């Protein structure tokens, strides 16, 4: 053992005055009475620790890692420890006899180091404890409230029972009295008591029982859950949660309720059932919500799902179960939508999709007023080259008074002329094709048809067709026997031939006016106009003149400078500049109105054609137009119509019929595949058909027999065909009932045959359809540019000579320079002597304006071509 150290010795060792050391020892909590007292090694270490702390020694980084190093005690006799370093303390070296270094130093150091961690942990634990305490307090409080409430209920119940008991007693007593058991003297007061009981006790008892029940609902709420043993459990589960809001609590409580019943839950359930459940507790709706959804002609699956408050996928699934394949974005038709809605347990209503249209109709109806006579609208029909265009041109040229002297009339699709007998409007698109196209779109524009028959040619196929069209449309005819100036003209022949078409001239006892004319010389033209006016008078054509206008689009185009331009024929009301109108799927405000002379007009009345500027887009000819109060309605109607049109298109595209599949496939690139399922009566036929049909495959199309077999067509065959979009070939076999159902539902194409060659022929045809069409180009005319004029109104206009074929205004063109295409586009204008024309033939001069191209140069060629579709065959 080492020798003992006194204070004096230690003071000498550490080079400190004895008094100071004694003082320090005393400060370190080790008071010594004198310098000769022995200082133990523990005391020395303690002193060292004290001195370190009091001098604020900062441990070196190395020391910080390991506790024993901090004290740096080891077994060497002399260990230098830098204690001071601070002010005044200087550098102190301590020699330590190491005996118990391990027990003290590490713990102290560790305690020093761990302090902040411990603090943090303590803080967390404290908070947790607080939170737990709060929860417990709250639960206790709630339990207290519940207990009070239960006590109150119990009290009320007891009171009610007591009241009932007393009433029963009173009743029993009363009956005893009635039976004479009670002494007579008591009778009156007893009855009195009984009566008073029944009034004062029994009566209030009833409502009390009710009120007793009412509060019984309340504890079903969230805090009902925290009462009792299980709630204590739960409380401790939540105890670690710092903040548990009321809503959280309610949520958790509700969640807990969903767990399998345990503990006293069945009791709770019974109680709840008895009391009718808590008013404030969440209750899952017991009956499914039946929604009423309005469905229009078509609806997208997504929209339907939204209306049904379901996920799109669920509706898709339901549709799939019904055998309808549709994606979320696809539109389904009304009937399918109704079926799936009902399948899903909801109610489908016919959508009032037309409500904006109704508003529009109301607008049209509002235009009712006093009807006045209106001009007739005339269409000219007849066989090719019989002089329809010549007649229209002659009337326009001679009867439409041009604005400027020498000016020309504009081709706007229609024009009106003033005669002595009144105004007549002509639709400037001759031929029955245009007429029937309008009719097909539901537009009945024409009041009178002028049938042009060349006197030298007589009745021809198109003459007959024109008669049929006019008759079908119940439009009266006037026959214009044209080319009467010609030497071989034979008007009588025309009259006779038309008898065969049941068109009987007045002189033959019929009611059809015949007028002999010459579109070349103008002979008989006035008589023709007279005949039209007479016919119009007979028809007593009237229309409301005042009020908002409506009518039909005759022609439309997109003008480079003016935007969408539509020629409309007003059928009722007066169309004015500034009017808001809806026009097919377009809408807008009338910016300007132009007549056939190209002059601005302030308004257009019934039967008067007029060009309209200001529409949002180019409407289709045959579209109706209606003037409305405000732009909003116009926009709504137009947008709804547009959406409807798009939806209908989508529905048509989504069709699962063979034609659609083929059409869709036909438009693809590369080798197409035609899938077939072949069923036949005997094995030999199946073999023969398989070989013959697959042998039809070419580079462009592959005939793929995806299924074949002997026997009738089964449901499985039908499903296979449906899923792989295949056609079923039934050779001497038929489909059974379940197969027919699948075939019908999915629109599978099924074809029956009994002759092998017929099968091959038909498949060839179908395959040809699949091959699609080939677009071929044919150059129909070439014009050479001789000179180029620049006009501020029309831009560059090329003065040309047509050197080949015919240049047509509405066909695509290319501008060629040194046999190289420099531009491809379309014609803006095609004119002859300042007059717009539809076509210019070989050897004729003309002025050409190329749309969106101003760089035409003399020497260029303008080639006019058309694209024709040629069906490909195998
Ligand atoms: N002599 C004579 N020729 C006429 C008369 N009317 C038209 N023609 C000529 O007949 C030819 C055909 O006339 P169009 O007006 O183009 O006949 P269309 O019926 O409009 O012909 P398509 O537009 O092809 O259907 C032209 O060369 C006219 O000059 C007429 O009254 N007398």
Automatic annotation (TrEMBL):
GTP binds at residues 382-389, 428-432, 482-485. Residues 132-224, 243-282 are annotated as: Disordered. Its main location: cytoplasm. Keywords: Cytoplasm, GTP-binding, Initiation factor, Nucleotide-binding, Protein biosynthesis. It is found in: Cytoplasm. One of the essential components for the initiation of protein synthesis. Protects formylmethionyl-tRNA from spontaneous hydrolysis and promotes its binding to the 30S ribosomal subunits. Also involved in the hydrolysis of GTP during the formation of the 70S ribosomal complex. PANTHER family: TR-TYPE G DOMAIN-CONTAINING PROTEIN (PTHR43381:SF5), TRANSLATION INITIATION FACTOR IF-2-RELATED (PTHR43381). Belongs to the TRAFAC class translation factor GTPase superfamily. Classic translation factor GTPase family. IF-2 subfamily. This is Translation initiation factor IF-2. It comes from Aerolutibacter ruishenii. The gene is infB.
């Amino acid at each position: 053992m080492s020798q003992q150290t006194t204070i004096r010795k230690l003071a000498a060792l550490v080079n400190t005055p004895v008094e100071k050391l004694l003082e320090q020892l005393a400060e370190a909590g080790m008071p010594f009475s004198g310098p000769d007292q022995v200082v133990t090694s523990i005391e020395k270490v303690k002193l060292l620790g004290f001195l370190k702390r009091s001098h604020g020694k900062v441990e070196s980084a190395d020391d910080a890692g390991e506790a024993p190093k901090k004290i740096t005690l080891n077994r060497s006799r002399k260990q230098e420890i830098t204690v001071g370093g601070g002010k005044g303390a200087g550098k102190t070296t301590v020699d330590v006899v190491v005996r118990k270094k391990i027990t003290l130093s590490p713990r102290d150091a560790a305690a020093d180091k761990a302090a902040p961690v411990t603090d943090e942990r303590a803080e967390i634990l404290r908070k947790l404890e607080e939170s737990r305490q709060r929860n417990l307090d709250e639960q206790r409080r709630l339990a207290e409230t519940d207990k009070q409430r239960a006590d109150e209920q119990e009290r009320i119940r007891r009171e009610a029972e007591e009241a009932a008991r007393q009433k029963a007693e009173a009743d029993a007593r009363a009956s005893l009295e009635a039976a004479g058991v009670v002494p007579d003297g008591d009778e009156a007061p007893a009855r009195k008591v009984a009566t008073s009981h029944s009034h004062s006790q029994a009566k209030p008892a009833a409502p009390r029982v009710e009120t007793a029940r009412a509060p019984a609902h309340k504890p079903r709420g969230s805090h009902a859950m925290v009462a009792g043993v299980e709630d204590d459990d739960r409380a401790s589960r939540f105890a670690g949660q710092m903040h548990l809001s009321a809503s959280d609590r309610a949520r958790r409580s509700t969640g807990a309720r969903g767990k399998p019943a345990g503990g006293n839950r069945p009791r709770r359930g019974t109680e709840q059932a008895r009391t009718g459940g808590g008013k404030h507790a969440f209750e899952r709706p017991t009956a499914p919500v039946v929604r009423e959804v309005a469905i229009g002609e078509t609806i997208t699956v997504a929209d339907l799902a939204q209306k049904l408050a379901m996920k799109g996928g669920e509706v898709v699934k339901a549709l799939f179960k019904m055998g309808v394949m549709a994606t979320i974005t696809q539109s389904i038709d009304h009937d399918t939508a109704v079926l799936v809605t009902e399948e899903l347990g909801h109610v489908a209503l016919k959508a009032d999709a037309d409500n904006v249209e109704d508003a529009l109709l109301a607008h049209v109806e509002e235009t009712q007023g006093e009807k006045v006579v209106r001009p007739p609208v005339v269409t000219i029909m007849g066989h090719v080259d019989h002089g329809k265009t010549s007649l229209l041109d002659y009337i326009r040229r001679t009867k439409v008074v041009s604005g400027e002297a020498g000016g020309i009339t504009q081709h706007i699709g229609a024009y009106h002329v003033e005669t002595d007998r009144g105004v007549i409007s002509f639709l400037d698109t001759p031929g029955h094709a245009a007429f029937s196209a309008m009719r097909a779109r539901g537009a009945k524009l024409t009041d009178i048809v002028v049938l042009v028959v060349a006197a030298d040619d007589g009745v021809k196929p198109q003459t007959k067709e024109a008669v049929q069209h006019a008759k079908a449309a119940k439009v009266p005819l006037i026959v214009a026997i044209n080319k009467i100036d010609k030497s071989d003209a034979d008007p009588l022949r025309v009259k006779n031939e038309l008898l065969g078409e049941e068109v009987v001239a007045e002189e033959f006892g019929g009611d059809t006016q015949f007028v002999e004319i010459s579109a070349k010389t103008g002979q008989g033209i006035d008589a023709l106009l007279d005949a039209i006016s007479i016919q119009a008078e007979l028809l007593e054509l009237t229309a409301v003149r005042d009020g908002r206008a409506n009518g039909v689009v005759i022609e439309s185009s997109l003008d480079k400078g003016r935007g969408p331009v539509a020629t409309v024929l007003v059928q009722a009301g007066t169309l004015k500049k500034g009017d808001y109108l809806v026009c097919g799927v377009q809408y807008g405000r009338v910016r300007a109105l132009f007549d056939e002379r190209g002059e601005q007009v302030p308004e257009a009345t019934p039967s008067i054609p007029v060009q309209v500027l200001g529409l949002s887009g180019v409407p289709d000819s045959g579209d109706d137009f209606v003037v409305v109060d405000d732009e909003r309605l116009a926009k709504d109607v137009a947008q709804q119509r547009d959406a409807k049109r798009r939806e209908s298109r989508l529905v048509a595209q989504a069709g699962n019929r063979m034609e659609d599949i083929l059409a869709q496939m036909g438009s693809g690139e590369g080798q197409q595949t035609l899938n077939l399922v072949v069923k036949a009566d005997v094995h030999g036929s199946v073999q023969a058909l398989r070989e013959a049909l697959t042998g039809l495959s070419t580079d462009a199309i592959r005939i793929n027999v995806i299924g074949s077999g002997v026997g009738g067509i089964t449901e499985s065959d039908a499903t296979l065909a449906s899923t792989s979009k295949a056609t079923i070939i039934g050779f001497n076999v038929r489909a059974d009932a379940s197969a027919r159902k699948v075939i019908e539902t999915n629109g599978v194409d099924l074809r029956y045959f009994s002759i092998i060659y017929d099968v091959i022929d038909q498949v060839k045809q179908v395959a040809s359809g699949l091959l699609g069409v080939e677009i071929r180009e044919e150059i129909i005319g070439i014009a050479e540019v001789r000179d180029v004029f620049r006009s501020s109104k029309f831009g560059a206009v090329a003065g040309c000579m047509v050197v080949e074929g015919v240049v047509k205004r509405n066909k695509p063109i290319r501008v060629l320079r040194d046999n190289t295409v420099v531009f491809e586009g379309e014609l803006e204008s095609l004119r002859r002597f300042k007059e717009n024309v539809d076509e210019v033939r070989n050897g004729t001069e003309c002025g050409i304006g190329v749309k969106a191209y101003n760089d035409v140069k003399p020497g260029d060629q303008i080639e006019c071509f058309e694209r024709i579709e040629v069906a490909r065959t195998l």
